[in-house]
Design goal:
Belongs to the methyltransferase superfamily. METTL18 family. This is protein-histidine N-methyltransferase. With 195 residues, the chain is of the alpha/beta class. The protein has a single domain, classed as NAD(P)-binding Rossmann-like Domain (Rossmann fold). The protein is 37% helix and 17% strand. It starts with a helix and ends with a strand.
């Protein structure tokens, strides 16, 4: 969260200009709600479990985004349940349909297929899911300006995943994505070499 906070303090308008953001493994949906409160036009929340969406994410989004929409324009909010190996089929279709030019609501901007921002918090805990997670990010991130914000632990004891393992996977890729990683450690947030 420190990496995201530092990024928005320096360039608050970058969140306000976001057409679409997606939070993967959203749980309570706090990072996605944050982008909505800062002005993102569309927010998609994804979790493996539909129960998590129904009992945690939807109530939080209603309480923090929809009820506060009287103060400003309410973002388009959608919820998706599914495994990272297959949910891209839904996310890409919906993202392509919902990302519209703000000045001309009938025309899609060129190059807007995908999310401007993908958010993840505590999603890199299991080694077995890292490859599918990274493939999903590559399929759903808007190129070339899309960013991924990841918060997590360096290592999750008992399951073996962590930010180090995920960053190693990304850095081994010949066409990596742009990301910013924050891990609760002594070191400050570091941008990944994911360009």
């Amino acid at each position: 969260m420190n990496a995201k906070r530092a990024h928005t303090e320096d360039g608050q308008s970058q969140i306000a200009d976001v057409a679409a953001s997606d939070e993967l493994g959203c749980g309570h949906g706090l990072p996605g709600i944050f982008t909505g409160l800062k002005g993102a036009a569309a927010i998609h929340f994804q979790d493996f479990n539909s129960e998590v969406l129904r009992f945690l994410t939807v109530p939080n989004a209603k309480a923090n985004l929809i009820k506060r929409s009287e103060e400003r324009m309410c973002p388009i909010v959608r919820f998706f349940a599914g495994d990272w190996s297959e949910v891209h089929r839904l996310l890409l279709h919906v993202c392509s349909d919902s990302v519209q030019n703000r000045e001309d609501f009938g025309t899609k901007d060129e190059g807007t297929d995908g999310y401007d921002i993908i958010l993840m918090a505590e999603t890199v805990y299991a080694l077995s899911s890292l490859e599918n997670l990274y493939k999903l990010i590559k399929k759903c991130l808007c190129r070339p300006h899309g960013l991924v914000y990841m918060a997590g632990k360096k290592h999750y004891f008992g399951v073996g995943g962590g930010t180090r393992q995920f960053l190693n996977l990304v850095e081994a890729d010949d066409r990596p994505v742009q990301a910013c990683c924050w891990s609760p450690a002594v070191e400050p947030a570091r941008p990944g070499s994911f360009a």
